[in-house]
Amino acid sequence: MTDGNKIRTHKDLAVWQRAIELLVDVYQITKSFPKEKIYGLVPQMRRAAVSIPTNIAEGADRQIKKEFYQFIHISIGSLSAPETHFIIAIRLSYCLKEQGDEMLPKLDTIRRMLFGLLQHCRTAINVMRSQRMSRYLSLVTRYNSLEVL
């Protein structure tokens, strides 16, 4: 991260960095898939893997925390596809069992990181709501005191 652990862009997020590593792994592993799968399972796996860091990046660049929260949810949902694809690829012997077994814990780690980020966003959203409510109550109190005068 840059500037003393301060997050400036999505590229500073550890979960985005892990998702990019996963994406590279997916591309590397699918290179060795049977040629007849180039138009079936391979593009599905690659699109799903691309979707994860892309949604993290798009959400992080939004100005509204609720939107970031939503994009994190989409990224979590996107994780299910490559997980399922690797299970299928292992069962059909398109990749070595070791390759697939190596990918599943990586997917799980990213999932846990996204849930942690989701919790962080949820807390930030709740704090903002609380601050807005406090300001609102302060304004109402001031307004009510003006009516009394």
Please give a structural write-up.
With 149 residues, the chain is mainly alpha-helical. 78% of the residues lie in helices and 0% in strands. It has 4 helices and no strands. It has helices at 14-30, 41-60, 65-91, 97-148. The longest helix is centred in the last third of the chain and has 52 residues, at 97-148. The radius of gyration is 22 Å and the shape is elongated.
CATH superfamily caption: 23S rRNA-intervening sequence
* DSSP helical segment count: 4
Q: Tell me, briefly, the overall form.
A: elongated
SS class:
mainly alpha
Q: What name does the CATH topology carry?
A: de novo design (two linked rop proteins)
End-to-end distance, in Å?
Answer: 55 Å
Count of spatially separate domains: 1
Q: How many strand elements?
A: 0
Can you name the CATH architecture? Up-down Bundle
Strand and helix order:
HHHH
Label this structure with key terms.
de novo design (two linked rop proteins); 4 helices; elongated; 149 residues; mainly alpha; single chain
